[in-house]
Hints:
Helices cover 35% and strands 36% of the residues. The chain has five helices and 23 strands. The mean pLDDT is 86.
Amino acid sequence: MTQERKLFDRRWLWLGALLLTIAVFFFVRSLTRDRLLIHAAQAERVPLLSTISTNGRVEPEVNYEIHSPMATTVKAVYAQPGDQVAAGKLLMSLDDVQVRAREASAESGVKAAQAALQATTHNGTQQERQAAAADMARARLERNQARQDLAALTRLNSTGAASASEVAAARQRLATAEVNLNALDQSADNRYSPAEVARARAALADAEANLTAARQVVGQTAVRAPVAGTVYSLDAVRSEYVEEGKLLLQVADLRHERVRAYFDEPEIGQLAVGQKIQIKWDAKPGRIWNGHIERTPVTVINLGTRSVGEVLVKIDDADSGLLPDTNVTVMVTISSQSNALSVPREALRSENGKPYVYKIVKDGLQKTFVTTGAINLTQAAILSGLEEGDQVATGTASGQPLQDGVPIKVVR
């Protein structure tokens, strides 16, 4: 019995020694294993601006494009790009031989239409009215003669010197003469129907419109400045043949410019009229122009491979010095917080759409879900989940992934 008890105690002794060895092994391992080297940042309160950047193009607020009114030749050019011109100054002249011939033809058409309308409203031309008057006089003579013949035959018939058939024939001739006279009289008063008069009036209106158009084209062959401004684009030279509709030049008041900016479709909902805009131009590095959104997108268009909305940006700086049709970068501030608790954006992660950070607790990492506010390119506002002064991991020095509960060492 004593021997069995000793054997039992020895077994428990060996088991206890084994458990103690295992515990010492894991304790020593936890103290000696490598720690994950990480970069860290502190949650702190700073001013936070949320911005969106995109590209845009400078354009005059009011641009005047002058196109060739017809296919012709440039006779002379009196301006150069960059010239400051007064309103009405002659800038270019075009060959007008063809349009002046067209103007003369249109004037002839108007005169012919006027004569036709006068004829319809005055019962014919002067020659037609004279011929009608002669026909009326002849018809009256024929009627009067028929009356006299009938009266004479009627008297002779009463004495038996003329037969009844002769009287009837004379009566028929009188009736025919009166019908002819009435017809000529009605024709003299209403030679043309209302429809014919209306057609003549329409023909005159059409001829006058053609003349107006011809004179307008003649006027456009002398290209003049529509307003006082700068000739900033000149696309034709002397003796050059230009097709109808070709752009000849552009004039604008360059003291009043704007930017047409192109924002990607997902960003459109964050834009509003009045938001502040900063404008940068690579040709003048270091300089910033200020503006504000004047009009938000009304539709989405395709721009290369992008779906964008066009935003009109009013430039607030007087005499901006930006050149038309230049490409610029615009940045809009969509939100601004003066005292936001924030962490670097690289510290923020997401799981199933829920944002979280790895909070540093003692010498380890603790996965902590947070509620975020405004986010810009470098910072993310934290509404809940962290306190000011809390430290969070932004990444590892070795490129290894961060893990919950792993022991760490912060490196600077």
